[in-house]
Every structure is written in structure tokens, then in C-alpha cells.
Amino acid sequence: MKTVLGIIGLCMLAIVAFFLQSRAVATPVMDGHPTVKILVDKGHGSGVYIGDNLILTAAHVVDNAKDSKVRVKTEGGNILKGEVLWMSKARDVALIRVSGTFGLRPAVLSCVAPKVGDAIQARGNPLSVEFFSAWGHVAGSPREMGPWLVGVPTDMTILPGMSGGPVFGADGRVVGLSVGVLMAPAGFGSMSFTGATLIVPGSTICPLLGR
After folding, report:
1. Which residues of 175-204 are buried (b: 16+ CB within 10 A; e: fewer)?
2. pLDDT attached to residue 10
3. What's the pLDDT score for residue 187?
4. pLDDT block averages, 10 residues each, the chain of length 211
5. What is residue 182's predicted lDDT score, i.e. its pLDDT?
6. What pLDDT sits at residue 8?
7. Which residues contact 49 (CB under 8 A, 6 or more apart)?
């Protein structure tokens, strides 16, 4: 009798364990950090969650998104469906609406341009590396630079794939978005990367969000 009860007990434990495991697999990971990865047909970029199911990124990241549809990957590994609501190519800013958040913590956007010498941190997805951080300083005041109507130069490392990712100030607020690297002539019509990079400041982004 005891043997039968023991077998029944083990079977019940196995069923409970299977049920709990199934629930664990089916439950999505809850995210905290607002940085995301933007997935498009031909590559990827980065972005930042600002609340209300909205994500900021660079316009050139989603410029060729088919039917304005993109996918958004969170740091917890969750994949969200996204739709490009609008973009400003001149300012290199775009806004995406996602289907859910899985607990993404919204970033706070600063609407004031960062000052020369301010310490900053860029977060993004360079090349094949996901959710990478780089540190540096603001190297100049806002100005028109190359194809960007308004840009702020920095001495911070920004690599392909980090475009559209957030740049945080010392207080944790987003002071801008990473958008590009300054190039220099290298002879015979070729160009080389410099150590200077460019961000679109929050002072340019905030008026666009109010439209």
C-alpha cells in the first residue's frame, strides 16, 4: 500500500513540476532597461522606449522599412511588432509604436541640449554585439553638420548598429540619439572614420514629439 501511495505521490510531483516548467517557458521575460534593438529587412539599429508604447530611433534606421513595419527586440529577448508612425529625415528622428512593452522602463527625455564637456553614455547594438555601452563627452555645441540639420559632436565611440540608440547624461536622462560618425578624406577618393561622432540632441527631438 505504501509503495502504491509512493508511486502516486511521485506521479503527482512530476505533473506539478511539468506544469510549473510549462508556465515558466510560456511567461515572457520582464524587461527594465529602455534601450531596444530595431530589426529591419536589411540590418538593424537601436532605439529607446519613452513610454505609451512609443520608441524613438534614427530616421535612417527605418527609412526603408517595408510597409513601415519593423520588429523591436528588448534586452530580455522579447520581440515586439512595431509600426513607424512618422520620421523627420532632415533631423534623423523617427517614432515607432510597439504592440507591447513586457515591462520596459520608459526613459526620461531631456529637452535641453547637452553642454560642452558633459559626460555622456551611449547605449546600442553595434555590429553583432547587442546592448553595448560606450562613454565619452560632448565635444561641441549644436550645429548643422553634413546631412544633419542639427547635430552635437562628441568624442564617444559610435559604431554601425548603434544609430538611433539613446545617449544618457550624468543624471540618467536621455540627452540625444546616436546618429553618425564624422568621416575624413583618406586619399584616392576614399574616406576613413574619425574619433568624432554625432548625436541628435533632445532639444531637437522634443519639438517633434509635440507635433
Report:
1. bbbbbbbbeeeeeeeeeeeeebbbbbbbbb
2. 39
3. 56
4. 41 38 45 92 95 97 92 96 96 96 94 97 96 97 92 94 97 97 64 76 95 57
5. 78
6. 41
7. 34, 35, 36, 55, 98, 101, 104, 105, 106, 107
User: Could you tell me the pTM of the whole model?
Assistant: 0.82
CA distance 126 to 16: 43
The C-alpha cell of 206 is what? 522634443
Specify burial of residue 42 (Cβ count, 10 A radius: 0-12, 13-18, 19+). Answer: exposed
Q: Which residues contact 18 (CB under 8 A, 6 or more apart)?
A: none
User: What pLDDT is stored for residue 107 in this prediction?
Assistant: 97
Please check whether residue 59 is in contact with residue 200, taking contact to mean a CB–CB distance below 8 angstroms: no
- Three-state SS annotation for the chain: CHHHHHHHHHHHHHHHHHHHHHHHHHCCCCCCCCEEEEEECCEEEEEEEEECCEEEECHHHHCCCHHHEEEEEECCCCEEEEEEEEEECCCCEEEEEECCCCCCCCCCECCCCCCCCCEEEEEECCCCCCCEEEEEEECCCCEEECCEEEEEEECCCCCCCCCCCEEECCCCCEEEEEEEEEEEEEECCEEEEEEEEEEEEHHHHHHHHCC
